[in-house]
Amino acid sequence: MPQTTAPEVWRLTAAETAAEIRAGRLSCAEATDAALARMEAVNPGLNAVVESLAEEARARARALDAAQAEGAPTGPLHGVPVTIKVNVDQTGHATTNGVAAYRDVIAPDDAPVVTNLLRAGAVPIGRTNTPEFSFRADTDNPLYGRTQNPWGAHISPGGSSGGAGAAVMAGIGALAHGNDIGGSLRFPAAANGAVTVKPGLGRVPAFNPSQKAERGMLAQAMSVQGLLARTATDLALAMPALIAADPRDPFHVPLPYAGDRLEPPLRVAFTKDCFGFPLHPEVSAALDAAAHALSAAGYEVEEVAPPAMPEAARVGYRALMGETKALLGEEFARHGSPAFQALFEEYFRQYPPYEGAELLDAMARRSAFAREWSRFQDRYPLALTPFLSRPFFAPDRDLEGEEGMIEALGSALWSFAMNFMGLPAGNVPARLADLPQGPQPIGVQIVGRRWREDLVVEAMTAIEAQIGPMAPHLWARMD
C-alpha cells in the first residue's frame, strides 16, 4: 500500500487507520492531526462535537507512537481517532447530558466504555452533542444548541447520539461512541447513513462514576453502550474490545464476542410489517435491497412475521415512560427547558405511563415477550425488519404536536421492542433515496439472537458488500 498522504487520512476507516499505523506507514500523531483538522473544517457548520479534546488527543497520540517505537504491543484500535458522547464519564470532563445545570458535573474517572476504548488504543478527539437528558430522537439543547445532519438541514441528525452520528459520517473520527435506551444509536445511524449495532443486555459494561444514584431497573435493562461507524467492518474490529469486562458493572455478560459457528445457511426472518403505519416506497426498496444482498451472500431469507409485535414495543415504551416519570419527573421539571417539558407532556399524552401495579405487570411481561423471541430465534437467528416506516424526519419533527410525535417516535416500534427484550439490533444503510427535499440514506434493521452481536455485524457486512457504504456519497456532496 502506498504512503498515506495527510489530506486523505481522515477518510480512512478505523480498520484502515489501525492497519496503516501497525505497518508504520502512518503515525498515531498524523492520524490524530488529520481528524482534528477535519473537525476544525466541518464542525462549525455541524455542531456535532461540543468539546474539543485536541490537546489531550495529541499528547496521547505521541505517547502511543513512542510506545510502539519501543516495541510495546498495540491494541486493535491503536491510534484510531474516536469521539465520546457527553452523557458518559471521561476523567476531568463534564458529563452534562445536554443539560445546563450539569455543566459542572466533572467526571472523577472514566466510564467502562471509555476505559475499554483507551485500552484498545483509541484516541478520543472530542465529546459529542446529545439532547437534554439524552431523551429525544433529535439533537438540540439550550446548553450547546442544535446539531446539523451533514446531509443537509432537511434531515434531523437523530438522537440521542445525534452528535456522534453526524461526527463520524462527516469524517470527525473513524468511530463514535453512543448509547441506546430506545433507539439512540439506531436513530442517528438511520439519519446520517452510519452503521451501528445496539448491543444486547449486559454485553458492554456500563457505569458512570459521577452518578449520585443507581438507574431504574428498566433503564438498567434497556440502556446499552455502543458505537457508530462508517462501515460494518469497523464494528467487527471494535466490538470485541468494547465488551471487555469491568467489575463496576456486576451484571456484565462475560461471553466472547463471537459465539459458536452456526451451520449455514443462516435463516433470516424478513418482514415489512409496520403495524398500520404506511410503508414508504423508498423504505420498501431498501428492505428489498437488503434481502437480496443477504440472499446473494448465502443467507436463507424467508418472509415471516416475528412474534410479540407490536405489543412488546408498546408495553415496553409505556413501561419505560412510567419508570422515567416516577424517577426522573422531578429532575426534568427542575432542570429541563420549557420545550423539553412540553415534549414530555406530549409523550405522556400519547403513551400513557404505566404506574403502580400496571407498571410491575408490564415489567413482568417483558420475560414473556423475550421468551417468544427466543423460541422464534431458535429457527431464525436473524431478522430483517424496517427501522422506521418512512425516510428520516426533519429537525424538530417530534415537537410538532401529535402528528409530529407519532411520525418521529410512534412509528419506531421495531426500535423500542428490541431494547425492551434486550436483543442486539443493528442499523445499516441499504439505499440512498433521491427525495424532493434532498438525498438521504435509508437504513434497515437487523435483529440478532441474544448475545450474538457478531451475527448482526456479519449480516450488515454482507449487505454493505453489495450496496456499499454511504460515506463516499456524503463526502462528494459535502465537497
UniProtKB/TrEMBL annotation:
GO terms for cellular component: endomembrane system. Residues 30-456 form the Amidase domain. Pfam families: Amidase. InterPro entries: Amidase_dom, AS_sf, FAAH2. It comes from the Bacteria. PANTHER family: FATTY-ACID AMIDE HYDROLASE, FATTY-ACID AMIDE HYDROLASE 2. NCBIfam families: PRK07487.1. This is Amidase. It comes from Rhodosalinus halophilus.
